[in-house]
Design a protein that fits this description.
By secondary structure, this protein is an alpha+beta fold. It has 14 helices and 24 strands. The protein has helices at residues 8-18, 35-55, 68-71, 75-81, 107-117, 162-183, 229-234, 258-267, 295-311, 325-335, 345-350, 371-396, 405-417, 433-443, and strands at 22-24, 31-33, 58-60, 65-67, 87-91, 94-102, 126-135, 149-159, 189-192, 204-211, 217-227, 237-239, 245-247, 249-256, 284-288, 316-318, 339-343, 352-357, 363-367, 398-399, 424-429, 446-447, 450-451, 477-482. The protein has an 8-stranded mixed beta sheet with strand order 3-7-8-14-11-10-9-23, sandwiched between helices. A 5-stranded mixed beta sheet has the order 16-15-17-18-19, with helices on both faces. The longest helix is centred in the C-terminal third of the chain and has 26 residues, at 371-396. The two termini are 23 Å apart.
Length: 485
Amino acid sequence: MVTRKEDFSKWYLQTIQQADLMDYSPVRGCMIFKPNGYEIWEHIQDYFNSRLKEEGIRNAYFPMLIPESFFSREKEHIEGFSPELPWVTEAAGEILEERLALRPTSETMIGDAFSNWINSYRDLPYEINQWANVFRWEKRTLPFLRTSEFLWQEGHTAHIDEKSARERTMKMLGIYVEMIEELLAVPVFQGEKTPSERFAGAEQTYSVESMMQDGKAVQTGTSHYMGTKFAEAFNIRFLNRENEHVYAHTTSWGVSTRLIGSMIMVHSDDKGLVLPPAVAPQQVVFIPVGPKKKLADVLVKVEELDLALKEIGIRTYVDDSDNSAGYKFNEWELRGAAIRIEIGPRDIEKGQVIIKSRDEDEKLEVKFDELVEYVELELEKMQRRLLDKARRRNTENIHTNIDTLDELVAHIENKRQADELPGWILAGWDGSEESEAKIKEITGFTTRNIPFDSYFEGENALPHKSKCIVTGKPAVATVWLARAY
């Protein structure tokens, strides 16, 4: 067993495989979602779909194959995705007249459809979401986090003016924050991407970024204000109240199965998978223990208790296999069951069960008639504990007192010698791509985002940086720097 300290990447791969979440595909860079892995995605879908319904946004589906000519309509878009695009050039034994791209994202396909569907201001806002697979031919892959094919949702909206489009952009970013923190118990850093990190063709890109246990960053969600760029490229025009034909303002926003990999990296330990109860496929696992000849009465009681938990909506599993109790305990720790309940003949006599939460070391005795209330409350407590623990770790690994590139290099070296994480750095930036490139070249750190103004207010306010960490020139923004997946 490889530990996180010994080799974080190997530990991660070991954890997801032993938890039976995925398998490798015969196609390089692609993966198979096994039922436990896909069920996590289903819980994310359920949460997000409920929020979409509250917003009045409906799901749709668009073809995976996109004509090459669609990409040429928006120059920045094709330049941004061209290196990652896989193409279909032949079908039914014939060479196609026009190449078809496997969908990397759907702005072009949906833009074409919007141009036909939107004619009047009465049609706006037009807001849809799509659950789909997308393809970006990655050279270096890591299951869930970076694969050549992955699953995601992508929302696309068209609006009557800039104000309403920007409101939708920020509202969806806020919903992502709630989902990632409340459902996945993963804290996020919100902000705007620098121009070099923007989505190809966007006016502004806003992101939520999360810190992994190894101190690296993962971009866990993005929301883009597109202005009228795609509307102009795809002729999304409408007749306004003044009887003028004008272009719509559009947005797009998305999260992917990268959320699963991020959640695993944030919460899991050297014993295996740790999952927030809200998304754990098995929230409670019953493990009957004791001699076979005495298990009949135990199993009757387990069935009764199991049914009581199921009736209040808790996801349970009864492991009545022939494996030893020790094997089962280890197996369900590897698989990330939130709560383990042991029950044997002596427990029947005492009218109790033995309970252990996955993130706690202590075992507790709980009476039969108190079990339902205890489990319901403990699942809520575990959800909060995981988020609080991750927030404390974030706080311990952010550094706001580094002001020059030399100081950053020294900081990284000092942390390396002490076998500690370099973490995230709050730095001044002069607004140039040359400075971003210099930081990456020398340290491997990249700009994650520009924190919103709210981060610089209140009791725990971040300090504004007045000078660029690279050039010493006046800073146009304060940015987060970190190494990233």
